[in-house]
From TrEMBL:
Similarity remark: Belongs to the aspartokinase family.
Organism, as annotated: Pedobacter helvus
Enzyme class: transferase
Enzyme Commission number: 2.7.2.4
Taxonomic lineage of the native organism: Bacteria, Pseudomonadati, Bacteroidota, Sphingobacteriia, Sphingobacteriales
Name recorded for this polypeptide: Aspartokinase
Domain Aspartate/glutamate/uridylate kinase: 2-275
Length: 437
């Protein structure tokens, strides 16, 4: 069995929904994971924000506006008669439910419920569409088998235990439709997988049932060797290792979230990145195999703040770094890069909501300096200890630009450079020309 995930753009209109059958082969056994229709999640966030602010009138107006769009979708997607009526009943049910939430006390718990409606709508409408054209399918409610624990980590054995019997009960059905992104938490409440969303769902399902392959269908033909929005002449990478893909995803490649790689990596399930606009394109295969001794790609992550803590008195003292890291742990702020010297430690963060409190605590260790508007440029490839020449090639390509930090050796797969965001475009283009031309 294969897992096929389609994002919001791929189901963004009735025309796109119909076109999915050019990719989905009903003769092959597969689980199809769908995101909400493009634009829906943003609208649901607006609705939720209005209701959290107790602006009931605005919330109801936004709900009705979104419903009008779905009324049009039903008319364009489904033929007149019973199936259109079924589709309209689906839309009416979900939007009446949203209106009922608007008329009651609204909390963060209801917020998660609101966000879940997009995936529930897209999957149910697509299931009705398949019925209308005579394609057998089973609608799998993700809330019945996707679960996270008290640490917000997915419980893969729970998915295996609860999903496998459903698949076994439908041996003659090849096509199963389910929701990405949504799940239940440890209290049984509706929740979501947050970052990574539907990609994460697909990878978790692949791991849970030991699928043959996970396919992530987007609007780009695989992971490129640089950012195609900035650099001309980029090319898709045919093969990446799980580690290389995770590095690229974490440091800026938008096509995939790094969290989505880990379940597939743990269970050795190949992940293929494919383009709905060009279904015949090879895309990118992420697996345990990769071409050795080669630079694969360049990615950039914006919104970085560098923090330098200088303390000749304490830096070499036993436990100093532990105390520094504990500050970030208390404020649930992950660190991207870190470098040290005899008298200072520099590190970077991209989550700055608690930065003022963090800096206040760090001041007790020494002087603290901040550099905002920084970008991490990450060069990814096979950089094992026995390889040589890669670091000099990278640094030579940007020798005309100021570099704030360099991180090399923490992983066998990346060289990370911290630069001013104003220099990002020049850095990406210069690296591309030096490495790939």
């Amino acid at each position: 069995m294969k897992i096929l995930k389609f994002g919001g753009t791929s189901v963004g209109s009735p025309e796109r929904m119909r076109a999915l059958l050019d990719i989905i082969n009903p003769a092959e056994r597969q689980i199809v994971v769908l995101s909400a229709m493009s634009g829906t999640t943003n609208s649901l966030v607006e609705i939720s924000n209005a209701l959290l602010k107790e602006d009931k009138q605005k919330g109801i107006e936004l709900i009705n506006t979104l419903k009008d769009k779905y009324d049009v979708v039903v008319t364009e997607l489904l033929p007149e008669g019973d199936f259109r009526q079924q589709g309209q009943e689906v839309v009416d049910y979900h939007f009446n439910f949203l209106l009922s939430l608007a008329n009651n006390v609204f909390t963060a718990i209801e917020d998660k419920v609101v966000l879940a409606q997009g995936e529930l709508l897209s999957t149910t409408l697509y299931h009705v569409y398949l019925k209308s054209i005579g394609v057998p399918s089973v609608l799998l409610p993700a809330l019945d088998f996707m679960k996270i624990d008290e640490d917000n980590e997915p419980v893969i054995p729970y998915t295996t235990e609860n999903l496998t019997p459903i698949l076994e009960a439908n041996p003659d059905t090849n096509l199963f439709i389910t929701q990405g992104f949504i799940c239940r938490n440890s209290f049984g409440e509706v929740d979501n997988l947050r970052r990574g969303g539907s990609d994460y769902t697909a990878s978790l399902l692949g791991a849970a049932i030991l699928a043959e392959e996970v396919q992530i269908w987007t609007d780009i033909d695989g992971m490129h060797n640089n950012d195609p929005r900035i650099v001309k002449g980029t090319k898709p990478i045919a093969n990446l290792s799980f580690d290389e893909a995770a590095e690229l995803a974490y440091f800026g490649a938008k096509i995939l979230h790094p969290q989505s790689v880990f379940p597939a990596q743990r269970y050795k399930i190949p992940v293929r990145l494919l383009n709905t606009m060009e279904p015949q394109a090879f895309g990118t295969v992420i697996s345990t195999e990769s071409e050795k001794g080669k630079i694969k790609s360049i990615a950039a992550k914006d919104g970085i703040t560098a923090i330098k803590i200088q303390s000749s008195r304490m830096l070499l003292a036993y436990g100093f770094l532990r105390k520094v890291f504990e500050v970030f742990e208390r404020y649930k702020t992950p660190i991207d890069m870190i470098t040290t010297s005899e008298v200072a430690v520099s590190l970077t963060v991209d989550f700055t909501d608690n930065l003022d409190q963090i800096v206040e605590e760090l001041n007790s260790f020494g002087s603290v300096e901040l550099d905002r508007n920084q970008t991490i440029v990450c060069v990814v490839g096979d950089f094992g200890a026995e390889k040589h020449g890669f670091a000099s090639k990278v640094l030579d390509a940007i020798k005309h630009l100021p570099v704030r930090m360099i991180s090399y050796g923490g992983s066998a797969y990346n060289i990370s450079l911290l630069i001013n965001t104003d220099d990002k475009v020049e850095a990406l283009r210069s690296l591309h020309n030096r490495i790939f031309e």
